[in-house]
Design brief:
114 residues; mainly alpha
Amino acid sequence: MPWIVLLISAVFESVWATALGESAGLTHLTPTIIFFVALTISMAGLGWSAKHIPIGTAYAIWVGVGAALTVLYATIANHEPISALKVLFLTGIIAAVIGLKLAPGKPKEERSSS
């Protein structure tokens, strides 16, 4: 469950980052409201997940997935151009996120009792 919450909070990170860009410095009401709501949900999810996943791993995954989704949305919405290098590096971010999930390590509960 912590991994699912972490991924959902990463999606909300992408939402708040996009809304922040659309808010014109927090001067447009609707994107500003979306920014603050998504920010709250995103941070709450990251905070809860970090109780179960090491913070370094949780934060790296949260940022990586959120950044990749933000770039993907901006590209699809024609706010950013796409290039072969951009695709390569976004693929690298996703590969690194998958690698962090698959990397061996003791769960937090086991580490704290040793």
